[in-house]
Amino acid sequence: MSIKPPPKRHTNPFAALIKDHPGQIGQYMEFNHPLDSKGRYLHYDSFRFKVGKDIDATLAWSVVKSARLNRLTPVLDLGEPSKMCSFLYTPAMHRAISACDQHTTTAALEWMCSNIGERKHLQYLLNDLVEDEAISSSQLEGAATTTKAAKDLLKRSRGPRTPDEKMILGNYKMMNYAWECRSKNLSLEMIFDLHQTGVEGIDDERYQPGQFRNDDNVVVEDGDGSVVHQPPPAKTLEYRLENIIAWVNTNHTDVNSQSYIHPLVKAIIIHFIIGFEHPFRDGNGRVARALFYWYLFKTGFGAFRYITISTLLKIAPIKYGKSYLYTETDDMDLTYFIDYQCRVISRAIRQFKSSYDETVEKMNQFNTFLYESGLYGKLSEKQRVVFNVAKSGTAQNFTITNVKENLGCAYNTASTVLNGLVDLKLFVKHKVGNEWIFSMNDTNQIQKSWKA
């Protein structure tokens, strides 16, 4: 993952222009903006290929940097020796913030649920989405398992058998822990506990659950084994983290204050900080993403419980890694990392909204099917929910425990729901070990039975 770091910039690029390129001042002044003509915040690694052959790339870059320095907002000090991190708002950030405010607040989520007549249908599907970030985050870290197999592991609540399965279950517990801690302030103990919850039992010698690294042998390598990041010294790690925690716990939501930072942007910065500090021997990426979610939960963006960013990050892991390196190699300019994450988050929110719209449409079609087949009056509300989930293909296998958790009902009620669907020849069941697995009957068989 090699990148070209920015060259040493001219302290006064405009004086150099007048002196050395008087006939090209107009061409160079086109670079006097933080963004390129397409609204991109380019690092020198990419920028150098966008300038003409008759343009001095170093001088043009100095013009860009001059425009950026006038607009960057300082945020906090990181590293040792410490360096001020800063950022500026880009169009991609504004789009993500707008989408976040419109579609992901707890109030927006409640409206989405209440907008559907039988809201338990949507709640069941939303509960299914809770698993997705845990699974995708594990896959991003190298867990070799399919999403289907991982969902089966979580739904059946069986014990994990391999390190990859332990990683998925650990991530799932860690995301739930982040949700449970949404009313708390950040502390060293919470960071310890998140890590321990997520990695304990996978390989304790490798991960050292809930313990900060105590040496400087921990580095970040790329796929070729080259070191791309040397975290700051372990000796003063806790001191730096205490300062970071104080910053995280500071209120930055006063829109009338010069220190205002939108919660989405601040959550992304927290994500970056943990990756940069790398406080643990392993599992730092998972903790960083869990804290990103924790902060959004804490600040009222409850719909993020059902929105997975790791699904999109794992599609382009090199870009994800480069967004870290771009910041680190260019004066700790967080704009690169925040801008990239905002592009990913905008897509994730669109997918969430699209899934909601599709769910509403399928529910309407499903209810039409139930009325026309005569099944509507024969099914309880809970049975309609489970049957709809099965018919939509969202889940293929069901267990009594899984239905109990998703519907928030008693075990005996969940058993009655599933066995009742079997009695109506809508579901079939078979035993795996000591557990009954339920699944939807063949569609042709259902149609024959109910002439749908």
Topology:
Elements (H helix, E strand, L loop, with lengths): L12 H8 L4 H5 L14 H4 L9 H13 L3 E6 L4 E5 L3 H13 L2 H9 L4 H22 L6 H10 L6 H18 L7 H12 L4 H4 L12 E2 L5 E3 L7 H12 L14 H15 L6 H15 L11 H4 L3 H13 L5 H39 L7 H12 L7 H8 L3 H13 L3 E6 L2 E6 L2 H8 L2
Antiparallel strand pairs: 1-2, 3-4, 5-6
Helix pairs in contact: 1-4, 5-17, 7-8, 7-9, 7-18, 9-10, 9-14, 10-14, 12-13, 13-14, 13-17, 16-17, 18-20, 19-20
Describe this structure in words.
By secondary structure, this protein is mainly α. It folds into three domains: 13-71, no CATH class; 89-352, Fic-like fold, CATH 1.10.3290; 375-450, Arc Repressor Mutant, subunit A. 57% of the residues lie in helices and 6% in strands. Helix 5 (91-103) packs parallel to helix 17 and helix 18 packs across helix 20. The model has no long low-confidence stretch (mean pLDDT 88).
Number of alpha- plus pi-helical segments: 21
CATH topology of the largest domain: Fic-like fold
> What's the CATH architecture name of the largest domain?
Orthogonal Bundle
- Got a strand count? 6
Whole-number tally of structural domains: 3
Unreliable spans: none
The helicity comes to 55-70%
CATH superfamily of the largest domain: Fido-like domain
**Overall 3D geometry?**
elongated
Q: H/E order of the elements? A: HHHHEEHHHHHHHEEHHHHHHHHHEEH
Q: What is the typical, i.e. mean, pLDDT? A: 88
- How would a textbook summarize the main sheet? 2 strands, antiparallel
Question: Rounded to an integer, what's the Rg over CA atoms?
Answer: 26 Å
Largest beta sheet: strand ordering: 1-2
